[in-house]
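Me: I hope this is not a bother. Any chance you could explain this protein sequence and its structure tokens? It all follows right here:
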Amino acid sequence: MKAPVLLLILFAMSHCCHGQLFKKIANKAKEEVEWRAQRKAGQKIDQGLDSLLAVPGKVTKKKDSKKDTPVAAEQPKGNKGKAAEEQELNTKDGYITLKLSASKIFTGGSISISGESVKYKNYTQVQLKVTGPSPADTRNLTLTADGKYYTSWVASNTTGEYTVSVMSSDKKASQLAKFTVEELELIFDDEWPEDNIRETKKALDKLKEATVKVKDNISAKNKAELDAKMVELKKQVDGVLLLFKDLSKANKEIGILARKGKKLPPNLAGNLSALNDDLSEQASQMKKINEMADHAPLDNTICEYLVMLNEACAAFSTFTNIWAKTMSSRIQNIILDKAVPKVVSEAQGTVGIAAPADFPAKEAAKIYATSKIDAQSLAEKLGKVGIAGDILQFATDVLMKIYCDVFTGHFTHSYTIDFRNGKGETWWNYGVSMEAALTLRSPKKNISSTVIKMKGNLEGNATKFTFFQDIAKEDEFQQGSQGKLEVVPIKAFTPLAVSVATSERDILGFGAIARGLATPAYFNIPIDAEYDVDAGNIKIYINEALVDFMPWVANQFVFILYGGDLIPWIKKMTFPIHRARVTINGVIKDQNEFPVKKDAKGNLSFEGKGNRHIGDPSTVRETELKFTINGKKE
């Protein structure tokens, strides 16, 4: 009985907090409508409904009449942020987004700036300003039919840090972003590209460390095979480092000529800038994967050491055949003096970069010839599986099957939550559907009757989000506004989702860590299992998440609020979404035992499903949670 009560409290907490919010909305709405109706024309309006939907700084649960202990939502340790923040309805004035195409550009280069705001009646433009060491650049950008804006900014010869600020169409919200402008000659430094070199060496060290732990637990034959694959990998890594060395040397030679007064031709400058962007992105991705893989194994068994080995391989997924071909293409463009996009060429012309005659293309071709050869050679060495691909396949397809009993399967989970007013009308509901790959593993044992403890993961992502709101029907809002406030919907946003579980397709080919970096609304939840051979059942226990929904996984609603004076006020409200681990554990916790079946060939499998329903159509809150699970011993 305890579990249903706790789950009921969990969802009651969010409703309780939301009720407090709308009570403030109601009281504030009533005061503002009455006050605004009496104002004289010409008075300032920026004190009107700006704070109508202000959110409390901290959301807390009212104390129970019998218990004084507050109840908080379960929060994964692996994610930053507080449980209270997950439950908070957040409202802000205005609506504006801002995105930059890069965080760093070179003199003569350009940066793309984009975003969206609300286009409504006279609200048709946003104001953008770029400030920094060079003179400020202010622009009024006209919104497209769907509220988008786009522009590009060209860097002069003035280096330093720049700030992009953009004001929403109603001038009630703003966003800031920063980028730097640097001399192209910075990539001619002896240490370039140091970030790539550092992260590559760090990834290799992690892989070596994981390999040592695996080798201590496998046979001499398997150890020799793993050693041979590590030798091959070291050759591939040496090829990467050699390419970095080639490029650093070539860039240094170009830099020497440039310092002697020879100006870079537009095509060369543009291609070098693009090459630097590619390398910066690769280093950034590798750093993130190295950080995600920096955790202890779930236990000290060969199976978990193999998992850590797989995760260590993930960092090298950034050196795929696709990346190597990209590098070859960039270098080929330099050698052929291939033109860069028009906007970059124009930009370079504005800062006085000389024509190619001052720096013949054949000089660049000669300088980068070695880089081209080594880039092509590296692409051939990587083949279809890329760096560390052989080790990954060996660990997964060979070693894991030799030393571990493994169950693999599929998991689905969905839930919906409806919130109703006193009349039984729904004013808010949302739902989430998820799919995940299930894996369970344990060291092989030569016993036929015992309880086998297993470790595993539910690794997946949200496949669909649904969202509906009609805040005008919320009880406290209706009571406070008394029909004097009108809510005009503009746009609703649901988080980005992938229609399939990427963990089952392994599109990137390098396991959970690499997938987690690229999959929206991703989660990876460690689980424990107990397989009772005598009883013929298996129990699943949900642990804290390694990775769970990020804070930006939330529904958003942009709307206009009209008061008695008919002045529109643009608002953006963020509606929270529970993290995956909370709802998965809530539905599976007391329905976690599944019968294990054995077919005529002795193959083991299990499957099950469950649901939990809280409330009914007559209650102010109704929750439906479902799941299915299956697994088969490989």
Summary: The two ends are 37 Å apart (CA to CA). DSSP finds 15 helices and 20 strands in the chain. Residues 99-184 form a domain with the Immunoglobulin-like fold (CATH 2.60.40.10).
